[in-house]
Design goal:
heterodimer, A: globular, B: alpha+beta, 5-stranded mixed sheet, globular
């Protein structure tokens, strides 16, 4: 039975609501239930990340007047920061899954509107007032939390006025906009509240569920954080903070990627609370640091965008909503009819698939390849980052390509691969990596035969990189031996 | 077309040592369209062949295959320096026979003079009689003029170091331009004269045993203070005060000279007793003179002679051209610079980054233990950091993640993304110049990583390079839809002649001018000069006299001298340390110091100031090139306020609270360039001063340098290949036998080339790298190509 059906049943029976306790169906254990909730959390983080990336990639274009470019740039930086932080959330959720001995989940539903807790219809769309409104709604605190926030925020903090304005006028308008799009939108915080309640309950989740030995295998900020952390805070020789010293701050509004390895129930609870706080939490409450929450960032963008009124120019490129490469979607407004643009979109999908595959593989390899020497897990991790750079580069090209004959532009479709599961044998996984690289090379070569509408230099560089990577995979396959031989 | 002024271009030409009879052919390096991420292609370019007898250019040929050695000897880089005339309002024209004739002049009316010096020994001993210098008289003929470096502490007036020669190339109908060629020395080592007390030294053959140890202190320098290898107080000038008397004006790194075994000094109780070696590297000036219509016109250019560029197809991530560009154009990129130009430069910076990474064993440089050996026993930046701060060694990146090919691939991926017009997203991951002494993980993991900068801390790019990345990132977001992407221009290709934009006022075009016949390795783009200490020159030396009246140490802000005509109150500043420079109307000074910071062991989110008994305030000098970028670009020739410690503090040990009660004075910021030319002003550095902080002999640096990043000159990891484990393997460049099994640096490991090996056989042992692999000893088959008329 799918988790969606299970949860739909629970919702229908009235057993699950944001304000109530937790409930499960009889045929599942509480650990099953926790696993299911974590899987939903992972999918939500994944979905949000993708939607935010799409929104960020849509921003800009030559139509933005020079005087407004700084603001548009800062919006993009803010949204990308949120997307990076969602990546941290996704990895932390995987860590918790490992801790409880559950399978990781990198999946994401393309059309997950029936998933309880999902903030809203999954929609890849360019940045507009309506789309930002839905992001604000997804990440906003509860009413009680908002009141507390207004009470506790320093009057000198410019966010205070924004919170008040939000409460007084924006919230109502946002709710109207969001409910026009989605009949039952949710706040992300609801799910985390449930998770915390469940984890906190030793009768449901026994101590024995938490396998601290998995800590060795879990994702860390050292490996995945890439410096997106706040500056350390100066400590005196006595081990205290100098009077008046500032809290650690993620400088210049940069992302603070929270990736928590977890070993105990308490740590899991803290991690979940931190993730939740980073989403909806007010300034000053996230990780004990002065850090803008996702809600703060989106609220700023919403209000600034609203204050812009209706200028004769757009803050984003005319990127289509919900782009698709599938033949079956011909006739759908998002179908990328332009063949050249569609090639780019398919290349994007392929690299997205490669990314997810590498990411899954790092978790698999973590159990066998760890320690303080350079190892294959880390090398595969570098490939994940390489693919992130590819997605960024390809998206930058796609949003400048035509959708069809009109003025709309294509967009990165983020279409999920047919399957994410890895083969059982290490050799087969590497063969699959090799094959995907080979496919990517064929696609690039084909695209290089087309007219250069921007991007051929990138494709040539990508071909060279893939060529090297393919040789690398082949060498590893050689090391793994023949199909009949011993396998790792 | 009256000749109004003269210029010599390039204004700074780099010669490279070698004993082969024939200088290195001209070549350029270009991106490979078929393999855009691969090594740059070495492409033969028109080589001017000088007739030994007549001194004129016999032919112009293009080599199909450039060879770097001949008969086991390295081919020297012998740059040409061309004379240009300022004619008309704003026009630079090559000075040719025709132009001379049109001005009623002939080729013999052109005179040349050269003066070069090697002050490396003087820099250590502080004995003016240890300066080795060579000058020529004015000459107008076309014979080679040898640069014979004499020294008062040599055994006789007839003893000299051969710094090479200069030659006024005889113009003819086919090659009518007025030019001079500097042919550097062979790369020989000179040393002490043999006496009853000084036994023969196998490195120093008789004719080169010319240093008189009875007159100078260089031989066995440091013997009477074996504790820290410094000069004895007896050698300090008698007039200095007591504290100053204890002071030894050390270089950074210290003891950069050949010492009696065991070496290096820092692994052997800091005993650094000099073997008395001198090398034939030098720097100085070439001057040209011409009298036009009764008016004497003069121009000059700088030359230097340094080690060969052994990785000719790669460039360092921050080279001398970057620093000169910053001086000339300022630390920021103007908003109106065309986007394509900025973007191409940003991509080029990333490309140079991965060209540098390629030659590093990243795992070892990261501070990982290696084959059971503690990282503390291997030279790397983390090891240096541990030694300097007296803290346990910590790898920089997560130790499991560091592998050369994997990190290289990641850099390549960034480069590829920029080709796709993705906005550079890594601005905040770049190390800012004031963060170089941030030894927290967050600080150390910034880019460029694992490498050393001019201040001996972690390397930062120039402010201008960083701003290039910023601007490229900001503009990509607003790029028009579906435009064709222009190709990045081929890097360092030969310029047209004369190049477009070459005007008297365009100093940038002059600095980057590629003279006919000069290979890339003669240009600032190929120079690893602003490092610690640098290689071709020690660029840090140019900042010493930046503030009129003061002489600062090249690597920190200690006032080691004052100029004789300085005001009395300025005379009192000797021994004080400059702390900040205040620009007019600004209340926040520009610090020339920062503090070492590192992780708080008790708090993962905390950091502490790293202090030691020797450095109780944890002071870390900042390299001048970045620290003074704004001062220079905005206040050249103007007065600025400088802040100093109230007291003389010769040793950092005596500076517990540097900012307490400071004193301030105003100084004029000296012009960096000489007049309206692109020549680094002689007021900033005289002949020999740009190389005085370098190793003596330079071969020592190849053995001792713990930076290992000089992609173009001192690679670490070569012949790198993937393996079936997914990790990289390769050789240490200084490994005698190529096994594919990297031998970690260990001064006592006989598998590695040792000091004396290099002193005796450096030309054989230093192997050129092309395409990341050893060039076969005999070199590729040489094809002299077709002669061009």
């Amino acid at each position: 039975m799918s988790k969606h059906r299970i949860y739909s049943g629970l919702v229908a029976s009235g057993l699950v609501a944001a304000e109530t306790g937790v409930a499960k169906i009889a045929s599942m254990t509480w650990k099953d239930h926790l696993t299911m909730l974590l899987h939903i959390a992972a999918e939500i983080e994944h979905s949000l990340m993708v939607q935010y990336l799409y929104s960020a990639y849509s921003l800009g274009g030559e139509q933005v007047p020079p005087g407004w470019r700084k603001m548009v740039r800062s919006w993009q930086e803010d949204i990308l920061a949120v997307a990076k932080e969602e990546m941290g959330h996704l990895l932390t959720v995987q860590n918790i899954l490992m801790l409880i001995g559950a399978p990781i989940n990198l999946d994401r539903q393309d059309l997950p509107w029936d998933i309880p807790f999902h903030p809203g219809t999954f929609r890849l769309e360019r940045l507009t007032l309506e789309s930002v409104a839905s992001y604000v709604f997804a990440e906003m605190p509860s009413n009680a939390e908002l009141d507390a926030l207004i009470q506790t925020t320093d009057p000198r903090d410019e966010m205070l006025e924004r919170y008040k304005r939000f409460k007084d006028t924006d919230l109502e308008q946002i709710e109207i906009m969001v409910r026009t799009r989605d009949s039952a939108p949710h706040r992300v915080g609801d799910l985390y509240s449930h998770l915390v309640k469940l984890v906190d309950n030793p009768h449901h989740i026994a101590d024995s569920v938490f396998q601290e030995s998995t800590l060795t295998y879990q994702a860390t900020a050292d490996d995945w954080g890439r410096g997106y952390r706040p500056d350390p805070r100066l400590v005196t020789a006595e081990g205290s903070y100098p009077a008046g010293s500032r809290e650690p701050v993620a400088s210049e509004r940069a992302a603070n990627v929270l990736i928590y390895p977890v070993a105990t129930r308490t740590q899991v609870r803290k991690a979940l609370e931190e993730l939740s706080a980073q989403g909806e939490g007010p300034v000053g409450l996230s990780g004990g640091s002065v850090q803008l929450s996702h809600f703060d960032r989106f609220l700023e963008i919403y209000q600034e965008l609203k204050d812009l009124g209706s200028p004769p120019w757009s803050v984003s490129r005319p990127v289509v909503a919900d782009p698709s490469t599938l033949d079956s979607t011909r006739g759908h407004p998002g179908y990328i009819a332009d063949g050249h643009s569609r090639d780019w979109a398919e290349l994007f999908n392929l690299r997205y698939r490669m990314l997810l595959k590498y990411l899954g593989h790092t978790f698999r390899l973590a159990r066998t390849e760890h320690g303080d020497s350079p190892n294959l897990r880390s090398m595969v991790m570098h490939r994940v980052f390489g693919e992130m750079y590819n997605l960024k580069a390809i998206a930058a090209v796609i949003v400048r390509q035509p959708l069809s004959n009109g003025s709309l532009r294509a967009g990165p479709p983020f279409e999920m691969p047919y399957a994410l599961s890895l083969s059982d044998s290490e050799r087969d996984i590497w063969a699959s990596h090799r094959d995907l690289m080979s496919m990517a090379q064929r696609l690039c070569s084909k695209m290089l035969n087309h007219e250069d509408r921007g991007g051929h230099a990138y494709l040539q560089a990508l071909l060279a990189i893939d060529h090297d990577a393919q040789n690398w995979a082949k060498d590893i396959l050689t090391g793994l031996g023949s199909l009949e031989g011993p396998q790792r | 077309m009256t000749i109004r002024e003269l210029r010599i271009l390039p204004p700074f030409a780099i010669g490279r040592l070698g004993s082969a009879a024939e200088p290195l052919d001209n070549y350029t390096i270009e991106g490979d369209r078929e393999n855009p991420l691969g090594f740059r292609k070495i492409v033969g370019a028109p080589t001017l062949v000088v007739d030994e007898t007549s001194g004129e250019i016999r032919e112009r040929r293009v080599s199909k295959e450039v060879t770097f050695k001949q008969g086991g000897c390295i081919r020297p880089v012998a740059p040409f320096l061309e004379v240009f005339a300022v004619v008309g309002e704003d026009h630079l024209e090559p000075l040719t026979l025709d132009l001379l004739h049109r001005n009623g002049l002939k080729q013999t009316d052109v005179s040349w003079r050269t003066r070069v010096a090697n002050r490396k020994i003087f820099r250590r001993t502080d004995d003016p009689k240890d300066v080795v210098s060579a000058t020529t008289d004015w000459f107008s003929n076309h014979a080679p003029h040898r640069l014979l470096g004499g020294c008062r502490n040599f055994i006789s007036d007839d003893s000299f170091i051969d710094f090479g020669h200069v030659r006024y190339i005889k113009p003819n109908d086919k090659f009518p331009e007025i030019r001079l060629r500097f042919t550097p020395a062979k790369g020989l080592i000179y040393g002490p004269h043999v006496t009853a007390e000084n036994p023969p030294d196998p490195v120093i053959v008789g004719s080169r045993a010319i240093y008189d140890s009875s007159k100078g202190s260089w031989y066995r320098f440091g013997h009477d203070d074996a504790e820290d290898g410094k000069a004895s107080s007896e050698t300090a000038p008698a007039s200095q005060e007591e504290e100053e008397g204890d002071f030894f004006n050390d270089t950074l790194p210290p003891a950069l000279y050949a010492i009696k075994p065991p070496a290096p000094s820092w692994l052997n109780h800091n005993i650094a007793i000099s073997r008395g070696y001198l090398d034939d590297a030098c720097d100085g000036f070439v001057e040209v003179r011409l009298t036009v219509a009764g008016r004497e016109l003069k121009a000059q250019a700088r030359i230097c002679a340094g080690p060969p560029a052994v990785v000719p197809d790669s460039l360092f991530v921050r080279n001398l051209a970057d620093d000169l560009d910053q001086v000339l154009l300022g630390p920021t990129v103007p908003d109106d610079e065309p986007e394509e130009e900025t973007r191409a430069r940003a991509a080029e910076i990333v490309r140079r980054a991965y060209e540098t990474v390629r030659f590093m064993n990243v795992a070892v440089m990261n501070g990982n233990d290696f084959k059971g050996r503690s990282a503390l026993s291997l030279d790397s930046m983390p090891e240096e950091e541990a030694a300097d701060t007296q803290r346990p060694i910590r790898p920089v990146m997560s130790p499991a993640t560091v592998d050369t090919r994997a990190i290289l691939a990641l850099h390549e991926q960034v480069y590829a993304a920029l080709q796709g017009r993705a906005a550079p997203w890594f601005l905040r991951l770049l190390r800012r110049p004031e963060e170089v002494a941030d030894f927290t993980d967050r600080g150390r993991r910034k880019m460029p990583a694992l490498m050393c900068g001019a201040d001996n801390n972690y390397l930062a790019l120039t402010w201008r390079q960083i701003d290039t990345i910023r601007k490229a990132g900001e503009e990509a977001l607003f790029a028009p839809a579906a435009i064709g992407l222009p190709r990045a221009p081929p890097v360092l290709a030969a310029t047209s002649f004369p190049p477009a934009g070459l005007t008297p006022r365009n100093l940038s075009a002059q600095i980057h001018y590629a003279a006919a016949g000069n290979p890339v390795s003669s240009r600032p783009e190929a120079a690893v000069a602003n490092c610690c200490p640098g290689l071709e020159v020690d660029f840090r030396a140019v900042w010493r006299r930046m503030f009129k009246g003061l002489v600062l140490r090249e690597w920190d802000s200690l006032v080691v001298d004052v100029e004789p005509d300085a005001e009395p109150e300025i005379q009192e500043l000797k021994g004080h340390r400059m702390l900040r420079v205040f620009l007019p109307d600004e209340t926040d000074g520009i610090p020339v110091f920062t503090q070492f910071e590192g992780p708080a062991s008790s708090d993962p989110d905390g950091k502490i100031v790293l202090t030691t008994n020797k450095n109780p305030a944890g002071l870390a000098p900042l390299e001048w090139s970045n620290a003074l970028a704004r001062v220079l670009s905005e206040h050249n020739g103007r007065l600025v306020r400088c802040e100093f410690t109230r007291d003389a503090v010769w040793s950092l040990e005596k500076v517990p609270d540097p900012l307490k009660d400071p004193i301030t004075f105003r100084f004029e910021v000296r012009a960096f360039f000489d007049g309206d030319t692109a020549v680094i002003s002689p007021d900033l550095a005289d002949a020999g001063e740009l190389t005085q902080g370098l190793c003596s002999p330079w071969q020592n640096d190849y053995r001792e340098c713990s930076c290992y990043y000089w992609a173009s000159a001192r690679p670490d990891f070569v012949n790198v290949e993937p393996t079936t484990t997914g990790l990289s393997k390769g050789d240490n460049w200084l490994q005698k036998e190529r096994t594919g099994d990297y031998v970690p640096d260990d001064y006592s490991d006989t598998r590695l080339i040792h000091y004396d090996d290099l002193f005796l056989h450096w030309e054989k042992l230093l192997r050129f790298q092309v395409g990341g692999r050893d060039v076969p000893e005999d070199g590729p088959r040489r094809d002299t190509g077709e002669a061009q008329s």
